[in-house]
User: Fold this.
Amino acid sequence: MSDVAIKVENLGKLYRLGEIGTGTLGSDLSRTWARLRGKEDPFAKIGETNDRTTKGSSDFVWSLKDVNFEVKQGEVLGIIGRNGAGKSTLLKVLSKVTAPTTGRVKVRGRIASLLEVGTGFHPELTGRENIFLNGAILGMTKEEIRRKFDEIVDFSGVERYIDTPVKRYSSGMYVRLAFAVAAFLEPEILIVDEVLAVGDAEFQKKCLGRMKDVSVNDGRTVLFVSHNMAAVKQLCTQGLVMRYGSTIFEGSALEAVNYYQNSSDTNSYFEHTGPLAEAPGNDNIRLLRFAVKPLRGELLTISSGLEFELTFFNQKAGINLDATFELRNLDEIPIFHHGALITTQNDSQQGTYTVKGHLPGYLLNAGIYQFKLIFGESQRHLLFSTDDVLQFEVLNESLGSNNSILPGILRPDIQYAVSFVDAVQV
Amino acid sequence: MQIIEASPATAPRVSSASPAEEDWTEIIEPRVGLLDLGLKEVWRYRDLVLLFVRRDFVSTYKQTILGPIWFFIQPLLTTITYMVVFNGIANMSTGGVPPLAFYLSGVTIWNYFAQALTATSTVFTANAAIFGKVYFPRLTMPLSIVLSNLVRFGIQLGLFLLIWSYYLLTTDTLHPNLYLLLTPVLVVLMGLLALGLGMIFSALTTKYRDLAMLLAFGVQLLMYATPVIYPLAKLEALPEKFRWLILANPLNAIVETFRFGFLGSGSFSWAYLGYSALATAVILLVGTIIFNKVEKSFTDTV
Assistant:
């Protein structure tokens, strides 16, 4: 089991920003000219790391840079990181959809990638024809597909419609059939993007269940990209955290999730460094720091409770200052809107204030939440309000055999008192 | 959930006895050798090529009433148009051959080339969505296009043979000869030429869309530079200094030989056909190399 299945060495991928088209002939020619003379690509040198929030001076960006890691056979590697951290680019390079700019990847075994289900489905063809076509696109031979045809149809549960063109399918049936084909691929290495985990809850469960099956029972190597920390923790053995196109952490899946959530790069931590005048805010208030962390333990879970701490600079002296915290879930439903009175005697001072608050465990359900801040004067005049300053995720904790997130906004820990009242008289 | 037995075809190819450090199945690198065409891989995906061909046929004529009859209607209507316009109105000679047989022979083999070229030239842009999501040897796509056009050509050739034998039996205007046996060679040459040119265009169109515009009317213009609607002998009407322009066209000898073999009108020259074969080989080689180079990175530029 110690065999290395994938070895990534100094992998880099350079992307060109802006419009491609006009004026490329000129730069193409100078590029080719440079290459012919054995010089470096004149445009590649000025490429910068990939931080989408800052405006770079160059049109070229390293979407992946100096990426090195190894995956052993049978490992399930979860790759996590913010949007734009280079995860999808990495998958694209590994699945040979696009070539790297520098470095190399050594692979032992056949790779199949599921960056999307149903690729190559033709609406006019029947379900049966599409199974064969899609299977062949994913690398199966006709013979292999024929052998597994019944299982695929069975798994998809659309047997009745198998000879109907897929354009007449409901979108749910379409996805089911597409996933069924993918589920019966038998590569040694499987690459899965989180886009796979769309669809209804049942389908997601089926996807994840099948993935677990593939890795645990069949001993295949799986690379899994996701934003769903609970899924990564549940499925993966190893974890890799990426930022700005580089790997910044490698370790067990749990450690990686941990690192990702505590690193300053996830939004659950905000801190302004640099001149005060450039901090978010206005002439009244400048935001300096805002962080959310678990009250107990190292992970934000439904039981850990959470502590939030706000540091800001107040410019207005001698007023009644208040700060309001508004928490919303991803559906934009306000969970609470709660204010803290900073000063009550018209005695605010110019300077830095810190406000701390905490929520007990077993209050918030698992999910992603956003904090919004509103600063006011005498609870009447608005001084400054932010959009979502902070986003954080509360992780699910499995209770017994049930790993799924329970519905509901709250997740209280209710103590039930049960007593037997009376026996039924027959 | 059931455990699926690994099939022999997909079992790890690594022998566990000696896991040597350099024993990799595959190495993904920025650039591959110019001539590393991955034909072996294409062979492994041969089922996919056939399924693509099948898809083309099944999907084209779904929900049409006439279905595959369209295969015959297209060349017939084109031929009749040419008969009316070029033979009837413009009074152009067909070299003593019945116009129907003359034009149909040209249209049949020309359509094969033109349709294969047009379809191949948009391989990258038309399939960007699939190509961006999953890897399979990109060569399978143009190959399948040329193959499905070959099948279409076969059907249309049947139509031509039907009309051809009618004239052969009822009139004395056709003089088929042994060069007819070259037809398979011509068909292969034509297909490879369309494949090569199509790959060049499809590869370059990913970056420069201008070429798509050029190709749209370029194919039409090229037909006039090929003896499809006139016999090659008519070239003498052209001033000497422009004649090479038409003779340089590698399609020339192919169309002319095809017609000469079946109809007995026109000319045949091993030199011209040899030139066509050479040009086809060069274009195919260049096309494959460019195609292979572009397929590595086209998802970034398309």
